[in-house]
Design goal:
5-stranded mixed sheet, 3 domains, mainly beta, Jelly Rolls, 6-stranded mixed sheet, 49% strand
Length: 275
């Protein structure tokens, strides 16, 4: 005889094993639905049905990412402390894919810090922060692999793609800055100058220098629309030195594109192009 199908609901995700194969469970807060494929344990509910996005308001400053939630939309805002996304412990072996959509309706960029909620996380391929573009939605596709046999940590996390839904750009755009500090998750900087200027360039440790591929590249696009020199001096009192380079100089009414490389806390110039 066929199993009787049951429908259950609650204000949280399923907490108990399904009563029957094919049973339905509905989270009345998020609207997510589960369909059971077994009855032995709570994991037999599997993940929620795809296509449903969980919306998180900007009143929440710390978000624990749910690996069984395919899409999470989180509206973030600037404040005294950066918003935090917590990568939780996943005990069920398998491969997980999540979309984290970060909305920012403010007029300034927002940085979301990434932390591990447990001791067995392998974050070698994760940056310690996620950048959120101004007046846009920045989408991160995040993968987590949980092997059958733990090797170097039970959860392996990585960001495999970043994209923008509106006015986003990989470039951090600055006009006539008085100094430039290379830090956080940004990798491309576009600097525009309309008057001659001398400024400090502060190079810090970015990304995760202990990852398996420890090379990090950044791009400096320097556009000089003025009739004088733009001189950027590497500040070694605050930041790291730049190998064999003390200053970056851009001539009047010209532009330069610099690619700088960080490897194990050592910065060097990889490429220089006229633009």
């Amino acid at each position: 005889m066929a199993n009787v199908q049951h429908t259950d609901s609650g204000t949280t995700d399923p907490q108990l094993a399904p009563p029957s194969i094919g049973a339905h469970y509905i989270n009345t807060v998020t609207g997510q639905t589960w369909v059971a494929h077994g009855t032995a344990r709570v994991e037999d509910w599997g993940g929620p049905l795809p296509g449903h996005a969980l919306a998180i308001p900007d009143t929440v400053n710390e978000l624990v990412l749910n690996p069984k939630q395919p899409i999470t939309v989180w509206r973030v805002k600037p404040g005294d402390f950066n918003p935090i996304v917590v990568l939780p412990e996943i005990t069920e072996p398998g491969f997980y894919e999540m979309l984290l959509v970060l909305e920012n309706s403010s007029g300034v960029p927002v940085t979301v810090d990434v932390v591990a909620g447990f001791n067995q996380a392998n974050l070698e391929r994760m940056d310690p922060s996620l950048g959120v573009a101004v007046s846009s939605a920045t989408t991160y596709k995040i993968h987590c692999w949980v092997p059958l046999v733990a090797v170097g940590g039970s959860n392996f996390w990585s960001v495999v793609q970043r994209s923008y839904m509106a006015f986003g750009s990989d470039y951090v755009k600055l006009s006539n800055p008085s100094s430039l500090r290379i830090s956080g998750s940004a990798r491309k900087w576009a600097l525009e100058f309309t008057s001659p200027r001398q400024l400090d360039l502060i190079l810090t440790a970015i990304g995760n220098s202990m990852r398996m591929d420890p090379i990090e590249d950044i791009e400096l696009l320097i556009l000089n629309y003025s009739g004088g020199l733009i001189t950027m001096t590497v500040d070694t009192d605050v930041g790291y030195p730049l190998k064999d380079v003390d200053q970056i100089v851009v001539q009047p009414n010209s532009g330069k594109r610099y690619t700088l490389t960080l490897c194990r806390d050592r910065w060097s110039v990889a490429k220089v192009q006229d633009v």
